[in-house]
Amino acid sequence: MFLPLTLDEAKKRGWNSIDIILVTGDAYIDHPSFGVAVIGRVLEKAGYTVGIIAMPNFMDPSSIEVMGRPNLFFGVTSGNIDSMLARFTAFKKIRNDDPYVPGGMGGVKPSNAIITYCNLIKQRFKDVPIVIGGIEASMRRLVHYDFIQNKLRRSILVDSRADILVYGMGESQTVEIANRLSGGQSMEGISGTVTIARNKPLNAFLLPSEKEATESNEALITMYKQFYQNFQSKVIIQESGGRYITHYPPPQISQEQLDSYYDVPYIRKPHPVYTRTIPAYTMIQYSINAHRGCAGGCSFCTLTLHQGKRIVSRSRDSIKQEITAIAAKKAIHITDIGGPSANMYGMECSIGGCNRESCVFPAVCKHLKINTRGWIDLMDEALTLPNVKKVSVGSGIRYDIFMRSKDCLHELSHFIAHFVSGQLKVAPEHTDSTVLRAMRKVPLYPLAEFVKAFNHECKRQAKEYYIVPYLMTCQPGSTDSSVYRMRSEIEAIFGYIPFQCQAFIPLPMTLSSIQYYTGSDPLTGELFFVEKNTKARRKQHGILMKR
């Protein structure tokens, strides 16, 4: 059964009350690629009754009352994407679409969705605890730059008036919060959370205050350097209006824990209340999450700060059980067995981890144990399962990691023969050395080497496959001239110019957002040119897009 969207659905389950109500800006899709479904199912497995309010009408406070008062707390998220990113383009125009909404219709979720939903709850249920989470909460947990509003904002925990913020993927934290509230205990000290303390916590690392960071670029740069260097291992605090934002280090989940999050009865479909197609679901319907974490640490990306640098991979048995379950009734094409980068599956640090922000920049770390063979073996096993007619990689790969494998050419041959479906995604993002340093991306040469090997092998196997590169303009360091060079270099490597390219958006709390705001890299101190004029940004983007 689906988790209930109404009190009537809850009563059909025999529930007289609901312990936890999850509020989300997305449609409810009961699939492990959608955060609210995962959190709801994990809480259900822990013994709690859970209801969902999906896409509440932010103009109508009564929309938050449809399931009554929860016994324990409201859990609030904007959905799978930050609401400001969902509503606005890189050139600050309102989007007409939203792939997480039935019919792909834009405008369903509000700007600053978490704050808006929390305000609705406060109007109707003043004394009910509120827990905020998801990517929007995670990436706005301290002072951050908001690109759409073009200003620094304080922690979303303060502006939402929530009781606690969960950052990262959130399963273990949310269950712990539920356990503590049901037992009448304090929510302080939970790994992977942020709270507000009236008194200064002892033995915590003190960042520059909210006032200092918002009034001085120097203090803001210092804050982010200190945060990135310490958040994984220390309790961090930031003074805000006489109180202290208290940030606890992230939890370290095991493979067994990760497996358990997928060993729950997902129906893997949208709730039947929706009659129109939900584009995001169509895209990932038969995809498999194989691991979490990203060793890349790209400056513009939220993944490392959200999921962590450490790779945690599911067991082969867990993945194969999931595939067997979804292929039980008909033959299917598994469109992805991956994660942030598919070939990071099974990677480990030989020394157990360090404070280095990236395991692959400026070069792949010697302590990083690459497991390309194990990843390919996993897909080989998946291909032998009943009703699995094809397995391919939809999430893309890190070519610099792939080419570090001792047997990379043989593995590439096998990969092309079995696991490419027309196109393979890679993400060089740019070709200019200055821009790549700002992005914390590897130099260009592994890309040319990989493309040459890929095309040679496709020709040998008589397969018409293509590599699709992700490219980005307007990133700090990027100029008109560097984009002209990128256009020429990409055409030389690939033989064509991609039809799609992304214009850089400074996402909250990323290193790139601070580069964009201050013109300086918090970790290195290097200064970068930053194009902020919207007309000039459009021109730069058009250089690459011109046909």
Protein architecture, described:
- This protein has 547 residues and is α/β, with parallel strands linked by helices.
- It has four domains: 7-190, Response regulator (Rossmann fold, 3-Layer(aba) Sandwich); 193-249, no CATH class; 286-420, Transcription Regulator spoIIAA (2-Layer Sandwich); 422-547, Transcription Regulator spoIIAA (2-Layer Sandwich), CATH 3.30.750.
- The protein is built from 21 helices and 24 strands.
- The longest helix is centred in the last third of the chain and has 17 residues, at 445-461.
- The protein is globular.
Q: How large is the count of helical segments?
A: 21
CATH superfamily of the largest domain: Response regulator
By secondary-structure content and strand pairing, the structural class works out as: alpha/beta
Regions with little confidence, pLDDT below 50 for 5+ residues: none
* Helix content bin: 25-40%
Using the coordinates above, name the CATH class of the largest domain: Alpha Beta
Number of strands: 24
Shape: globular
Rounded average pLDDT = 94
How would you describe this structure in keywords?
single chain, 547 residues, alpha/beta, Rossmann fold, Transcription Regulator spoIIAA, 4 domains, nine-stranded mixed sheet, three-stranded parallel sheet, 24 strands, 35% helix, globular
